Amino acid sequence: LMAFVSAVETVGDVSGITRGGAKREATEEEISGATFADGIGSAVAGIFGGLPNTSFSQNVGLIAMTGVMSRHVVTIGALFLILCGLVPKVGAIIRTIPIEVLGGGVIVMFGMVVAAGISMLSDVDWNRRNMVIFAISLSVGLGLQLEPGAVQYLPGTLKVLMTSGLLPAALIAIVLNLILPAELADEATEEVSGGMAGHGGGSLPGE
């Protein structure tokens, strides 16, 4: 389940990166490539007993803020992080940066993640079906995270998963999207109701 939700997060991150950095929708090739890479990384982590990998949502805000989405820049950043981990003096230099500076950057970065998510949601067709899916998944995900006592009688591992917020929200949204009937078009509504559907074209007495 964790790997499944991680794949959903990867799809969302790729979409947010292309919208924030390139002002376009992600292609099928980009989404499938990112999902495959995430799956391979999670499989390798599983061999060593590690948890599934997750794509860093911070990158969505970073790319939306800078507009730079070159893979070469990402590679240089990864090499720099490896260098910081292997050479303590390099890491010590980074630690000299005041925590207030890092905190301000983090606030902007995560704020851009939220802004990118809202921008993606603005393109959704907010019919009744989608609103119900969004409302239930968001309410249950946040509710279980804020009130972990609601699942206090579940087994330990399941309790941790259910109170993570992300897992129950994503799982409920996926399940509801599969089982809820699609929104009926106007023609289909007329057919089901036998032509009795109202169109709001009446008038009040005296008009």
Describe the protein in words.
This protein is mainly alpha-helical and 207 residues long. 70% of the residues lie in helices and 0% in strands. Helix 1 packs antiparallel against helix 2 and helix 1 packs parallel to helix 3. The C terminus is likely disordered.
Tag the structure with descriptive keywords:
207 residues, 2 domains
Short description:
The chain is mainly α and 207 residues long.
Helix content: 55-70%
Overall spatial form: globular
Major sheet summary line: none
Please write the string of helix (H) and strand (E) elements: HHHHHHHHHH
Count of discrete alpha- or pi-helical segments spanning 4 or more residues: 10
Whole-number mean pLDDT: 78
* Whole-angstrom Rg: 23 Å
Segments where pLDDT lies below 50 for 5+ residues?
200-205
The beta-strand count equals 0
Secondary structure elements and pairings:
Layout lengths: L1 H21 L5 H20 L10 H9 L4 H16 L1 H8 L3 H23 L6 H19 L9 H7 L3 H14 L6 H7 L15
Helix pairs in contact: 1-2, 1-3, 1-6, 3-6, 4-5, 7-9
